[in-house]
Amino acid sequence: MRAKTSAGGGGLLHHRDFRHLWSADIVSQLGTRISYLAVPLLAVSTLRASSFEVSLLRTFQTAAYLLIGLQVGAWCDRMRCRPVLITADLVRALALGSVPAAAALHVLTIGQLYAVVFTVGVLTVFFDVAHQTYLPRLIGREHLVEGNARIQGNASVAAVAAPTLAGYLVQWFTAPVAVLADAVSYLWSAAWLRSIDAREDTPHRGERQKLRQEIAEGLRLVAAHPVLRAIAGNGASQSLAQSAHTAIIVVFLVREVRLSAGAIGLLNSVGLAGAIGAALGTRRLAGLIGRARLMRLAVLVNGAAFLLFPLTGPGWRLACYAVADLVTSFCLIALNIVQVGFQQTVCPERLLGRVNATMKFLIWGGMPLGSVLGGLLATAAGLRATLWIAAAGVLLAALWLLLSPLRTMRDLPPPDAYDIGSGSCGSDVGAAR
Hints:
Layout: H1 16-46, H2 51-78, H3 82-104, H4 110-139, H5 144-173, H6 175-194, H7 211-224, H8 226-255, H9 261-271, H10 273-289, H11 291-306, H12 318-346, H13 352-364, H14 366-381, H15 383-397, H16 399-402, E1 418-419, E2 424-425
Antiparallel strand pairs: 1-2
Helix pairs in contact: 1-2, 1-4, 1-5, 1-6, 2-4, 2-7, 2-8, 2-13, 2-14, 3-4, 3-6, 4-13, 5-6, 5-9, 5-10, 5-12, 7-13, 8-13, 8-14, 8-15, 9-12, 10-11, 10-12, 11-12, 11-15, 14-15
């Protein structure tokens, strides 16, 4: 199952099945981003939740990566991925649809919100791992740079459009209606995925190992590869600190800066315009300066920009937030495009699901811990102090890449640069320098 692309300027968008995958993704991304803002606003404005209670929403949303992330990768290597994607979309739509229903009946509680975001989080683990595993199966590894860039382009468009849309949906139609929009987006995604014609073969399996042995194989590969290990360490450290920031930032903007839901949405959209720039320019920038140099530069600039968030205040000080969001969004999307493409290229196909899941487990597994930490710090030290601590953590996370073999490289090493079976270095590693 491979995409046959046209020579025209549209590239993969000339291929029907990738176009349907792309169409499923773009509206789903938009809906997901709406909920990122709508759910904490619902907790703050309607349920009068405390800072710690709001931080727990993010904890429950991401806890599944810590609980089942590794197992999901092994399962995805054993099965066809498209049915997993469709099922995850349908169940997420059902779970989110229960929120506006409960709100209409005046029975919505913070406990139900926790249950809903946890359920959605579990299905999102399945969806994300299966999606990263399905893409190479659909389009072939030779098209991964373009495919990942186009998918990241969807995330960038959603990052720009969704916060404003979410803010005004909450302000004009209430937060439950905004959550309903996310539920509908998952139904849209499932319909487009169902329309893909390409037949996905069931992965061939020889003698099947026990699940824990298959999981260990993916972990060993990441641990043995110096670049994957550095990427995972940076991502995990950065994720821990950034989750503490994300868990309380909406509460900070509402209660410290005194912004309305619409203003918060607009502010986030202005800042996240940097994500579109990254989606459009990362391939060219990586070609000019090299992917390894781009990664080093991105983590340093990202960490420095996070120091602007705690300076946010009313009036002209809102510019601190806008600039920080603009720069960090560019850096994070650029990092993701380069890292995911490298990860998908360097990994043997039979291990792709497990390596994807291992990376997500290591990077996303810190999110629930960071969210709880953010809530506890905000309660003990205050919202602004928590943002300073989180910013320092993001900056320090850059050391993983700066002290790794990437520190002397212009570009990332080729797939055969390291013997990832044994962890020893291959003869081609110098070609990346």
